[in-house]
Amino acid sequence: MNLYKYILVILILAAATTGLYAATDAQTGLTPALLDELRAATQMSSAGTALMNALTNNEINKLALNREFLKKHNNYFSNKIETKGIADQENSGRCWLFAGLNVLRPAIIKKYNLDEFEFSQSYLSFWDKLEKANFFLEYVIQTADRDLRDRELDFMLNEAVGDGGYWAWFAELVEKYGVVPKDAFPETQSSSNTSLMTMAIDEQLVAGAAGLRRMAHSGSDQAELRIKKLEILKTVYKILVLNFSEPPVQFIWRYEDKDDIVSDGNVYTPKQFYHEVVGINLRDYVSLLNYPGRDFYKLYQFDNCRNIFDTQDPVYANLPIAEIKTLVKKSILSNEPVWFGCDIGKAAIRGSSQ
User: Fold this and answer.
1) Which of 100, 157, 238, 240 fits 170 for a cystine, CB–CB 3.0-4.6 Å?
2) Considering its fold, how many domains does the chain have in total?
3) Domain ranges, residue 162
4) Which residue in 126, 109, 134 sits closest to 232, CA to CA?
């Protein structure tokens, strides 16, 4: 009997909903008359037919390339940062790590009279993934009482350990873990092609998050939750080691300079290498932002936007774009590299040799 009541209620609600949409006189659906009007508005001229043929047989991004703009463009600059070689992030989202290490690279090339030098990007990427995993799990623990439909929680659960990052994240990683030369921790298949590895880690973390929330709702205390967190992190660490190999605790660095002189081999920890060999204080750098939607000449901080949990969220000084351009120019003229991030998606020529 109760089942029929439920069915009756559902039918009544369905009827009421249908009536709600049918009550308006506005043309809300795609009627045959409206479709005829759309067809009539899209009668092809010879130019339209040519455009359709072009689009259906070619890549849109190549067709959209503005030849007049291309003829005016060149890659000659009056001032260039003194560095050598190109670092390739390949199929990964580690541009921010590559850019950060490229800020340091010219100094070490000049300091040791080197023909070329490259830091290990995979070394910092390893620790970045692990730190992001810890941040994610700690966030889940501290928000265990929130509804799963909470927008901030939903955002966090959507991507646990993505490749992307900011200058502040890079600086914090270097301060905590140091840096190593590329030959001390070279690239691997997974470090250069991160999607499948990241997917495996995300699956472990999201499943772990569900377990932590169940434990919290069942009355587990903070100590018990962090024991469970450690178990999850051990799995993540193992996945990282299987994909990157084990990061070095110490290593031997030798180099050959431009005069073909080979140095002695010295043993360094990654932090010693950063402080003694590189010798650049990343705390001297300032992060600037151009966001017209907020007042200029003020500091802004992004909430819950960090890779290392026990650090502060990034802080930016919001400046007009003209002032940022002036500061960037001064930096380049002083042979000081500039780390920058911008939205180039709409104007990029992807996969083109132009």
Assistant:
1) 100
2) 1
3) 95-280
4) 134
